[in-house]
Known about the structure:
Blueprint: H1 2-18, H2 27-38, H3 64-77, H4 103-115, H5 118-122, E1 134-135, E2 141-145, H6 150-155, H7 162-173, E3 182-185, H8 202-219, E4 223-227, H9 229-236, H10 244-247, E5 252-254, E6 257-262, H11 265-270, H12 274-291, H13 297-300
Parallel strand pairs: 2-3, 2-4, 4-6
Antiparallel strand pairs: 1-3, 5-6
Helix pairs in contact: 4-8
Amino acid sequence: xxxxxxxxxxxxxxxxAEGDGFVSLDDESIAILKKFANAKPLATTGDTGFVDDVExxxxxxxxxxxxxxxxxxxxxxxxxxxxxxxxxPIPNPTPFKLPEGDKQTRWNALxxxxxxxxxxxxxxxxxxxxxxxxxxxxxxxxxxGEAPGADEEIQGEPxxxxxxxxxxxxxxxxxxxxxxxxxGNIMNWRPECPRGNRPPTEEEMxxxxxxxxxxxxxxxxxxVVALGMTAVNGLLGVDPSRRMGKVRGKWQTYEGADLMIxxxxxxxxxxATAEMKRLxxxxxxxxxxxxxxxxxxxxxxxxxxx
Length: 306
């Protein structure tokens, strides 16, 4: 249950950062929030501020005032949506085969396959667009997010909203531009929700994942950067024991590429402290070193305590 709450809390922060007023919850999530509303405050432990307790999720707060503020935030930001709301069922991934040829030929073919995918199309909102990856087909760095947001489904391009603008600044701080990297999402459509955003389900990500893998196969990046826990779960599979604070900044592998896990830009929009920025920047410097991008002394000093 603790993992579910952390996901809810992250989604509340993201909704706030993106300007959304609501986030969808199912019955189990609602029950967990009620536990937090009624729990007694405890001393904080570790960076997360939560106690590892497999039997009961307990709210951890230094004061009752902090607890009250949290509950009020939940009451303001959360709209309950029945978990059985009318969402079209997700079938197994659609088999496809790419043609022989150079990267551009294969990428064009894959893009056409995705944009004409009937399952992706039937999950779109009216007059919205399927979102496919963009960038340099010879990129050494592949930034992977989870799903399009409101701005992305309008423009049909990943990471063009507030979080995308911050990602562009991060890429710029690395001495690169969006034209030097590749940016994609696990999902090709915005997960359906009456208002605001919601994390994609395992079934939704499983359907779209082969398209993401095909993009990685075509581009052959040296490094894939997973942005946020949902992207990590989509790539590596859901693991209830996985914690962002434990896996962030540590190298793994995925589809023949080195995998770096870091926080989603939307998380930084909500928690734009120098400490949080520094953590992400350390991850980016590790990526730069891995792909052979020189790091100046000025860059090494970004977001250090003064």
